[in-house]
């Protein structure tokens, strides 16, 4: 199984996505991001890997927004976070 994320393949994009995830961790209305990072760390992942994994989910959501020209779908994002 390949453990790489899209942020591994695009370092500059990866850094920007990490910044966004770090900001989400500070937002009280996105507790699901904190829960996902905590869950991944509890499973033995490093904090950096947990942030990158959440970042990959965020990129998936952004891709949906761009290709489907839909607004941000918070419910879909939360569902994806809960699935990791």
Characteristics:
5 helices, mainly alpha, globular
What this model shows, in words?
This protein is mainly α and 84 residues long. It has one domain (10-83). Helix content is 75%, strand content 0%. It has helices at 6-9, 11-25, 31-42, 47-68, 74-83. Helix 2 (11-25) packs across helix 4. The radius of gyration is 12 Å and the shape is globular. It starts with 5 loop residues before the first helix and ends with a helix. The model has no long low-confidence stretch (mean pLDDT 88).
Secondary structure layout plus pairing:
Layout: H1 6-9, H2 11-25, H3 31-42, H4 47-68, H5 74-83
Q: Domain count, please report it.
A: 1
Mean pLDDT: 88
| Quantity of strands, as a count | 0
Strand content: under 5%
Distance between the termini: 15 Å
Which runs of at least 5 residues are low in confidence (pLDDT < 50)?
none
Question: How many separate helices?
Answer: 5
Give the helices and strands as they follow along the chain: HHHHH
Shape: globular
Proportion of helical residues: over 70%
**Largest beta-sheet characterization:** none
Measured on Cα atoms, how large is the radius of gyration?
12 Å
Main structural class: mainly alpha
């Amino acid at each position: 199984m390949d453990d790489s994320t899209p942020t591994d393949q695009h370092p500059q994009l990866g850094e920007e996505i990490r910044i966004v995830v770090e900001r989400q961790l500070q937002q009280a209305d996105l507790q699901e991001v904190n829960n996902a990072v905590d869950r991944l760390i509890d499973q033995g992942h490093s904090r950096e890997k947990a942030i990158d994994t959440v970042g990959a989910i965020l990129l998936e959501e952004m891709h949906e927004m761009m290709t489907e020209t839909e607004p941000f779908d918070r419910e879909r994002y939360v569902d994806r976070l809960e699935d990791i």
